[in-house]
Structure prediction request, 462 residues.
Amino acid sequence: MAKSDKINFSTPSGFPEFLPSEKRLELHLLDIIRRVFESYGFTPIETPAVERLEVLQAKGNQGDNIIYGIDPILPPNRQAERDKSGETGSESRALKFDQTVPLAAYIARHLNELIFPFARYQTDVVFRGERAKDGRFRQFRQCDIDVVARRELSLLYDAQMPAIITEIFEAINIGDFLIRINNRKVLTGFFKSVGIAENQIKSCIGIVDTLEKIGESKVKQDLEKEGILEEQARKIIEFIKINGSVDEVLDKLKHLAQNLPENEQLSLGITELETVITGVRNLGVAENRFCIDLSIARGLDYYTGTVYETTLLGHEALGSICSGGRYEELVGVFLGEKMPGVGISIGLTRLISRLLKAGILNTLAATPAQVMVVNMQENLMPTYLKISQRLRQAGINAITNFDKRPLGKQFQLADKQGIQFCVIIGSEEAAAQKSSLKDLKTGEQVEVLLENLAEEIKRRLT
Prediction:
């Protein structure tokens, strides 16, 4: 093959590829996330990576530019047949860009097989055709949970979400974080009470949601560009800046609602917010883990009630590390009925990328092996195989070095892979049913009877 004909085997832009140490970290975090999800009774499902295009576009508020359409690459004779048949739009297919629209289709397809409220989790890969940049990928893993009901869904499900977020991030041990909670009805009700027209509320919520990115003065300018009066914009800014402890914010909101006209939706939102906060407290979430933040709106149109965003304190530039909220109409879109739900999502690929870059997380060792049985003499390989298998049966991850190398080189190989212990058995040790156990972290080397080897390694690992 000529040099100019070489295949470009670099990864496509925006499609991540993990080294073993990075993939092991992802799997470790997935284990933590799955364990917490399941402790609350969420059950796993899997939806196809490919859906009909009309299904993915059903939600309406996602632009076509982020959807990856797919077509089979057919030989010329098959392509001619396909063109002649004139396949309809319903046959067009695309890669899923999130987990919620596929969830809606999944529920519609299995409505009579599911038990409601239906609590599911997914940790699948999704695809978006947006511009790839630092921390933004075209292929990434999303870890989602949602609870969906028919007709009514208790607000206590909303209260569970901060408890779940707290347990996950405390287990991952990434430092201090804050779950910011709000209710879209509070925002919508306040906008109505200060005279914002119904057709302007949606755009106002979207602008408010950009406060942290663009700042207070730019939010005010953007509100006025939407036709909001200067006095109305001032009141909105003052409202979303209300702060204090959770109880102080609730008291301020209740007092404000008493003095505003058309406050029915505002009052409902405050009541829902208070119910959720009470539930969060009853679930034992520490007070320093959550707050009420009236600037949190979640820009997506389908959120109708509780909304959440989680920020890593001291690293706010990372943005939200877990977000979500309550919706009323999203899941029932294919069935024509009200199916309220609440959920959260962790963009795990992006989260790992940003936390590694910030030095908050470190990759794991390149191998899960904890022990290497080194190769001292080829004629002792049957012994090495038996000892390695005995260690595995005791729950210790072990590899056997089949290649004959100088002992120092074998130590270097084990150390490079992050393996802590090497088991050394020569002819004398084999005859005496002993081994030398070398700790590569400390440099210590001790003599251990083969029958006690697994127990000694376990003791030193803990």
In short: Residues 20-39 form the longest helix (20 residues).
